[in-house]
Amino acid sequence: MIDKTTKTLDNADFDAGEVLLIDKIFNVSSFSVVGRIKRILQIKKAGHAGTLDPFATGLLIVCTGKMTKQIYEFQDLSKTYTGTIKLGEKTPSMDAETEPIFVGDFNHLTKEIIVEAKKKFEGEIEQIPPMYSAIKYNGKSLYKFARKGREIKREPRKVNVARFEIKEVELPFVKFEIECSKGTYIRVLANDLGEELGCGGYLTELRRTRIGFYKVEDALLTDELKELRELDASI
Questions:
Q1: Active site includes 15?
Q2: What pTM, to 2 d.p., does this model score?
């Protein structure tokens, strides 16, 4: 395991297989993070265990070498996220990557009303995957159709939201923490909560803080991984 406690990479065998805890920064794709790690470590084989959207930050588990065969085990673990929803508007992508449009007034809402509304989205629920996603249709990602203004019918999927806490309400912004199963779209939860409240809503911030028992506090930034590699090379 390569994480914050790692002082050196000397004993790591990246071809045989290692697990890295990475804290992904804002506006970088998960794919790009893996590419940079390959260059830093000078390895050919690596993959991440669960995509984070470019605008999201937080814990990304990256497996190298033969450990890539174990990626599915990490993907199946529950996830915890913190984030912010903006009420009164919605966007086509359900997050801040597309332009918002006004939906409705939110000034009548209270924290108590919002807490009551979010109960509908706890436990086992059904979600319709967003058009702005990497889900394939006829061999193409849905977001490619979405960017051309096409809507493709999607079937609802069952997911489990074990915990959905409203941490702070400062209208129009609502801060939350969610613990959920694999395959849960937090963007969809933000959008659906806005619909339930009758004023619209979209995700403005998202950070993944936990995957199973792995925590973002233990994760390295890619620059820190680079520093460890350079330190090893200089010894």
A1: no
A2: 0.93
